[in-house]
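Blinded run. Sample ID left blank on purpose so nobody reads anything into the name before looking at the predicted structure. Input follows.
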Amino acid sequence: MQNPPPDPQAYGTPPPSAAGKSSTGLDANVAAGIAYILTWITGLIFYLIEKESRFVRFHAMQAILLGAAFFVVMIVMRILGAIPLIGFVAGLASIVIWLAFLAVWIYCLVMAFTGKDFKLPIIGDMAANIANK
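Blinded prediction complete.
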């Protein structure tokens, strides 16, 4: 009895949406990965210049929203840090939030560069809605 051929998805082959070139001239997974490098700055650049690849547009928008969410949360933490007694807790929470953001950012970079299709909770659905318009 002969075994069926292996599933190409099981070996990390990029999904069809990440295959091919984007309108930037880069491979779609490379353009999506670069969009995360400076979060909202590079995300905005790639969102504005990308015309064809929904994969790149989605990841660019997700990078914009990730950077904006981090920026807003850190502003709130700075404001809370100015309040006596709450300031110490807010300072510790800021460190934890920064480390969590760093971990999510690295995860996004790796997943985009490898061409994996993924969505962050809450932000991913918002990015998909905006990018598909």
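Unblinding after everyone has recorded impressions. The first helix runs from residue 28 to 36.
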